[in-house]
Specification:
This protein is α+β, with helices and mostly antiparallel strands. 33% of the residues lie in helices and 30% in strands. Bound molecules: zinc ion (ZN).
């Protein structure tokens, strides 16, 4: 079951109040239409009935896919104890739990888990693509605007490194990265958090903490 609540909102453009529906949680098994609205970001899109301006309001959202066994908590703040207590038994049942801070990370995470691969593997693939772009394609770090997961076909992960005026795709076999993760299981251990954030910053911090810069 998905859940939502109505709240009074003041339009940031014309200043007039109106009522909006804010979703607290979405279950895609019971509400498959909500999946589309999450991926497109429409779930956060609102329109002022007075001045008809469209805008986004990103509220905390819990996204549950019970068929593929993953839960993503979209929030700029860590999960509170109530949510962690809800998450622990799910994790014991084999669910993957994550927190994402931005809408872009949220939608990418849904795609990664729907493709049935590990997001830790994907973050390593992104990092390797970034390094490849800098070291062997004469790219400059400061011109990179984003590094994005595209898809995974037959065990090969496709990553796009984007700059303002171009994009370069990299194909990386996931087996090689999975092996690297298995060999350093302690380093990649995330069991101390119920809803861990797994993104590019997380990966960089991981190598930095070890005093062993990734290269
Ligand atoms: Zn308005």
């Amino acid at each position: 079951m998905s859940s939502s609540h109505e709240t009074e909102y003041r339009c940031p453009y014309c200043g007039k109040p109106f009522s909006i529906t804010v979703y607290d949680s979405v279950s895609v098994k019971t509400d498959p239409d909500m999946r589309e609205r999450c991926i497109s970001g429409d779930i956060f899109r609102h329109s002022c009935p007075h001045c008809h301006t469209d805008f986004m309001i990103q509220a905390n959202l819990l996204y549950l896919d019970s068929d593929r066994k993953f839960v993503i908590y979209l929030s700029s703040e860590p999960a509170n104890e109530t949510l962690n207590a809800l998450g622990r038994p799910l994790r014991e049942k084999g669910y993957t739990l994550r927190r994402t801070e931005t809408l872009a990370e949220f939608t990418e995470k849904i795609q990664i888990f729907e493709d049935g691969i590990s997001d830790i593997t994907v973050e390593l693939a992104k990092y390797d693509s970034f390094i490849e772009f800098i070291d062997n394609r004469n790219g400059r770090a400061e011109e990179v605007t984003s590094v994005e997961y595209q898809n995974c076909n037959d065990g090969v992960i496709k990553i796009n490194v984007r700059t303002d005026d171009k994009g370069l795709s990299f194909l990386i076999p996931s087996a090689m990265l999975d092996e690297e993760i298995r060999a350093e299981a302690d380093r990649f251990d995330i069991s101390d958090e119920v809803f861990p954030v797994i993104n590019g910053d997380w990966l960089i911090d991981l190598f930095r903490e070890d005093g062993n810069p990734a290269a």
